[in-house]
Design a protein that fits this description.
The termini are far apart. The protein is 74% helix and 2% strand. A hairpin with a 4-residue loop joins strand 1 (30-33) and strand 2 (38-41). By secondary structure, it is mainly α. It has a two-stranded antiparallel ribbon. It is globular, with a radius of gyration of 22 Å.
Length: 356
């Protein structure tokens, strides 16, 4: 272990805790950066893993019923439109709870927010599991459980940036944000691949809920027993120290970004892209199955979308970390998305014409 030169200025701390008073049990998890006097803790990888598992679980809960929508509709004796609402409720609650989630994250910190999100997520899935024991109120219980899990999503999708900012050095921030953010995509991938295999009859829906309960339980255990603080005792970089020392009032920050034309344009364009992507995920089975394709094939199509996205995220994350070409990479991604959607639309129309 390389020690910090005593002649250097002591690094800024996040809290009142002094670097010399760090618990001796934490010392093996410390990596020293003598050039700047800041520290990166190896425990940051556990924090990142906890958030990634929570995001993965939330993604599985979100999309699982849509991947076997016909069987779910038969099991709960409802229409396909009602099953679609299990996915739509995530969008509605994320919009409603977006600003409150940011406020709680800024005021109460990462630990409280992550505990709240993982417990909401796990309780929501538990209610879905219990729905199999009540045939009268089964679908209502599923909707309640789905809503609880949906309340966790705004916390989980906003936390990757804060985790990267407070726990990771500058050169690893984009990669850390990418890893945590793709957790939801990995969850969608797992649900799209596993659910059609697990469920070949509507009577197997309870098994699906029990399997999805596993990652939700793992995430809540990791957060409850593993997350002990909002941030490390010593900031990982000078920029992290500066950001923590210059925390802006919540409403002032909201006003400033809403008056930033570039930011508003980015929100609208990214929001539109995300809306199209999630709409395809939710409705892809209902689009493909009437054309003669099976649930399994539709699931693999969804999986191919997610795999491409995850691989692309990792490549782009490393690329922009090295080159800082954020704008150029974003424009290329938007252009590629438009071309892909055009190809999908033309192929779908031709398939419908041929089947007619």
């Amino acid at each position: 272990m390389i020690s910090i030169n005593s002649s250097e200025e002591k690094p800024l701390l996040y809290g009142e805790q002094n670097a010399e008073n760090v618990d001796s049990e934490q010392q093996p998890y410390v990596v020293h950066y003598p050039h700047h006097g800041y520290r990166s803790y190896k425990w940051r990888w556990f924090v990142l893993a906890t958030l990634s598992v929570a995001n993965t679980s939330n993604g599985m809960i979100w999309i699982s019923m849509s991947t076997v929508s016909n069987y779910a509709a038969d099991y709960y004796e409802v229409s396909l439109s009602a099953i679609n609402w299990l996915s739509v409720i995530f969008f509605i609650l994320t919009i409603i709870l977006g600003l409150p989630a940011i406020y709680i994250l800024n005021i109460y910190g990462l630990k409280v927010s992550l505990l709240l999100a993982t417990w909401l997520n796990a309780l929501g899935q538990l209610v879905r599991v219990l729905s199999q024991f009540d045939t009268t109120w089964g679908f209502t219980m599923v909707m309640v459980g789905q809503s609880l899990a949906a309340c966790a999503q705004p916390f989980l999708i906003f936390m990757p940036v804060q985790v990267a900012e407070e726990w990771f050095p500058d050169g690893q921030r984009t990669t850390a944000t990418t890893v945590a953010s793709t957790g939801i995509s990995v969850g969608i991938l797992l649900a799209s691949s596993i659910c059609p295999v697990l469920v070949s009859h509507h009577s197997q829906i309870p098994l699906l809920n029990e399997v999805i309960m596993v990652p939700a339980a793992v995430a809540v255990l990791m957060a409850t027993f593993g997350i002990r603080s909002d941030c490390p005792p010593t900031p990982p970089s000078s920029s992290a120290a500066a950001e923590s020392a210059n925390v802006q009032p919540f409403m002032q920050g909201i006003k400033e970004v809403m008056h930033n034309r570039c930011y508003v344009l980015l929100v609208l364009s990214a929001g539109a892209g995300y809306a199209i992507f999630t709409a395809l995920l939710t409705l892809l089975i209902q689009i493909l199955c009437p054309m003669g394709y099976t649930d399994t094939f539709a699931g693999w199509c969804t999986s191919s979308m997610i795999v491409s996205g995850v691989v692309g995220c990792f490549i782009i994350g490393i690329l922009v970390d090295k080159t800082k070409l954020y704008s150029e990479v974003m424009k290329f991604a938007y252009g590629l998305s438009v071309v892909s959607l055009c190809v999908f639309s033309v192929a779908s129309v031709k398939r419908v014409v041929i089947s007619l």
